[in-house]
Amino acid sequence: MLSVENLSFKYEKKPILENISLTIPTGKIVGFIGPNGCGKSTILKLMANMLKPQEGTVKLNNNLISKIPNKDLAKKMTLLPQNKQNKMNLTVYELVSFGRYPHLPWHKRLSENDHKMVDWALEQTNLSQFKKRRLLTLSGGEAQRAFIAMALAQESPLLLLDEPTTFLDISHQLDVLNLLNSLNKSLNRTIVMVLHDINQAVRYCDTIHIFNNNILQNSNDSNQILNSSAIRNAFDIDIRVHYDQINNCPYGLMDRPSQKYNKKII
Amino acid sequence: MNITKVIRKLKKPPIILALLSIMLILSFLISLAYGALEISFRDVIKTLFSGENTTTFRILYNVRLPRTLVAALVGACLALSGTLLQGIMRNPMASPSILGVNAGAGLFAYFIFILFPNHLSLTPIGAFIGALLACILVYLLAYSDGISPLRLILSGIAISALLGALQSTLVILFPERSVGASYFMVGGLSGITWPSFKVLLPYALFGFILIAFFPKQLNLLGLGDETAKALGLNVEAFRLFFIACAALFSAVSVSIVGLLNFVGLIVPHMARLLIGNNHQHLLPAAGLLGASLLMFCDTLARMVINPAELPVGIILSLLGAPFFLYLLRGKKDM
Questions:
Q1: Can you give the pTM of this predicted structure?
Q2: Sheet holding A63-64, edge to edge
Q3: How far is it, in rounded angstroms, from Cα A4 to Cα A57?
Q4: How high is the pLDDT of residue A242?
Q5: Is the pLDDT of residue A261 over 80?
Q6: Please, what are the domains in chain B?
Q7: Close Cβ partners of A235 (under 8 Å, ≥ 6 residues apart)
Q8: For the residues B177-190, what does the mean pLDDT come to?
Q9: Which chain A positions have a beta carbon within 8 Å of B272's beta carbon?
Q10: Of residues A40 and B186, which shows the higher confidence score?
Q11: B:90-109 residues touching chain A, CB 8 A cutoff
Q12: What are the counts of helices (DSSP H) followed by strands (DSSP E) for chain A?
């Protein structure tokens, strides 16, 4: 369990996050949503010990993450940032094998067991047939899967993902989300992700946290979130809630409040 | 069927490294055999092993062998320095000159030519000190709560410009004393003998052994700071370590052969095109390629306007730049 307590972060005196407290229960999928610039990415980085908060603490199973050595922390959680270097002249296999780094002594090369883990991670992400392909020849969706495979090879039970679906077309978005969902259900990985599509968040996450104006505005069960006023205020939108019988979850149709009065949108 | 296609078929790292090793041996023999006096390969080997004090032996042992060995070590050092820097900066334009190494070495070389014209043997030590000081200055100026690659590159450019301006001022104030220093600026291997080799060898070996342990860490830095941290790498510490290695490699090279810009910038790219970005293979490939290229080009430098010789820096750029562009054209995905 990861717990964030009274966390505040300023960037050059500009407050980004103020007094955030939340917990990530083990085995769940947790979504962060909110308008641009609300601090969603920042909180992920704070949770992964990549930024130091001015106030408050982040604890992993009751240990301060800032006190956990780098490699040990990497065995327990990992973060896939939004901006990755994915145009590299490396094979998919090489990239995924980098995930073994925290398990290797500093001077050692990959052992047979490490190679097995890499093959397993490629299988789980359906990339086995891609393993000799170079990263710069992959599509955005395939590259994203390769990075998820790297995180899997890392064997950390907690995965933080910053906008894993951004820049992907809808079929690749669904591929990535279905993959993350299956990693959660079959391999019991805890997943925290920043998403922009509210309906995808509702469908795939157990819990959703809404960030707005530097604070955590609302935390709720994903089935309830569409009915909350917090989401309407955060994005300044109207939502008509419907129910998706097939996926057993609500979904919303969204409008800008002003557009109600326009019969037709030009 | 062109060369790059054949290469792509043989594109297994062990095969490429084996081919590069063969190239290294061939360049070594060519460099020993050709020059003002041509010696056959068989005679080269026979003479060196017999150790008889003939004219051929003296040419080989006193002139060509030390020069060839220095060319090999310097070529490998500069290529590795460039590979390390491009790797940690994630910037294809990075080369040893980015650290201010060349500008620092150049300025101090001019200092010695102008202030101590009677002690020109101090030039290598002066250039080495200048190179390291410039490096440290660039690093400190770029440091602000960690090193960002972009800030390092920009402060390198600024410091190089500043030191370059100081150097130009010296040239204008003392034109007659600066003539000799211009050879240093082009870079060349003429007059290199055993003492240079003995200075170079321990630094080069020390550097080779150091980086041989850390290709994994260099790979992770290439993924971006955040991904590298998420994988548990101590990003700042390793970046400083690799910068220090790169500075050592290029400072010691520059102090012995002068400024050979081209090797550190373009050999890493050639190696990358041949073998990919995995530093486990890229580092040895770049080292082998840099060594072979410098030995081969130095041989040409001795031969084209025989009995005089061209500075090898000129040959490197004349031959290497078109070859590099040819390799680049074969790569559509860059």
A1: 0.87
A2: A14-24, A2-11, A55-60, A63-64
A3: 6
A4: 93
A5: no
A6: 3-330 (1.10.3470.10)
A7: A35, A198, A254
A8: 74
A9: 89
A10: A40
A11: 90
A12: 8, 12
Chain B residue with minimum CA distance to A78:
B230
Contact B170, B112 (CB under 8 A): no
Residue B278 to residue A94, Cβ atoms within 8 A:
yes
Contact of B11 with chain A, judged by CB distance below 8 Å, is answered with no
- Residue range B299-310: average pLDDT? 84
Q: Which of A21-30, A150-159, A199-208, B188-197 has the lowest mean pLDDT?
A: B188-197
- For this complex, say whether ipTM is above 0.90: no
**Has residue B103 got a pLDDT over 70?**
yes
Mean pLDDT within A168-183: 92
Evaluate if residue B218 carries a pLDDT over 70. yes
Longest dimension (CA), chain A: 67
Residue A102 three-state SS: helix
Q: What is the pLDDT of residue A265?
A: 53
CB contact under 8 A, B223 and A154: no
Q: What share of chain A is helix, strand, coil (3-state, %, to 5)?
A: 40, 30, 35
pLDDT tens, position by position, B7-24: 566 678 889 999 999 999
Contact B276 A70 (CB under 8 A): no
Is the pLDDT confidence value at B185 over 80?
A: no
What is the total residue count of chain A?
Answer: 266
Residue-wise pLDDT tens digits, B245-286: 998 898 888 888 887 878 888 899 889 888 888 999 999 999
What does each C-alpha distance from B175 to A243, B121, B178 come to in angstroms? 85, 20, 5
Class of the A2-84+156-261 domain?
A: alpha beta
- Are B313 and B186 within 8 A, CB to CB? yes
- Domain residue ranges in chain A: 2-84+156-261
How far apart CA A95 and CA A150 sit, in angstroms, is 7
SS3 letters across chain B: CCHHHHHHHCCCHHHHHHHHHHHHHHHHHHHHHCCCCCCCHHHHHHHHHHCCCCHHHHHHHHHHHHHHHHHHHHHHHHHHHHHHHHHHHCCCCCCHHHHCHHHHHHHHHHHHHHHCCCCHHHHHHHHHHHHHHHHHHHHHHHECCCECHHHHHHHHHHHHHHHHHHHHHHHHHCHHHHCCHHHHHHCCCCCCCHHHHHHHHHHHHHHHHHHHCCHHHHHHHCCCHHHHHHCCCCHHHHHHHHHHHHHHHHHHHHHHHCCCHHHHHHHHHHHHHHHCCCHHHHHHHHHHHHHHHHHHHHHHHHHCCCCCCCCHHHHHHHHHHHHHHHHHHHCCCC
